[in-house]
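DOMAIN: structural biology
WANTED: fold as tokens
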Amino acid sequence: QIMYCYAVNGRSATPAHLWLTGCSGEMGTQVQRIPGFDKWIIEKEAKSYLEAFADCKENLVYLTADAETVLDDLDMSKIYIIGGLVDRNRWKGITQKKAVDQGIQSAKLPIGNYLKMSSSQVLTVNQVFEIMQKFVETKDWKTAFFHVIPPRKRGEAGAANDDDSPEGAANGDLDKCLEEEVDDDDDDGDGDEEADVANKRHCFRSENGKS
């Protein structure tokens, strides 16, 4: 999912300022295995987001499907956190509780205002990121949702509009991105279901679910 986020961001006309925090322990080990990760143009931080953004904690917004606040727009002064923990089944509500315990704001995407989801409103990290990035580009939530969320998950509301399916394009972006990273290595010798958007003014970040 992190690879998908990086691939999509790299091809965007309005690339986000991405932060990947909590890159320590097993998380750090796993991301280092991604081909070309050392050359990624992304902020990599071993500390948690609370430590990394301690001087602007009031601007942190944890995105969770269980939040009461619904996003109508994206505030470019905010730092939107996409948690890496799958928040469903026995983990239901854990990300909202985490935000409350940490004393930071929480919010959710306005999915229910535009779509009737066939199952849970929990999306993957890369889906949330791409939706927010598409909204920055279009200023239209419905367009963003229909561009990213697969038709099979949209239920009745999405059945009539299956264009701009993201799955094939996303896979193509990822494959091409990773191929380019591998090519760079050759030249120099030396990317389950659950948004830092911004012309370098605000960031979505993905975190590994640990405090």
Q: What stands out?
A: Residues 1-153 form a domain with the Alpha/beta knot fold (CATH 3.40.1280.30).
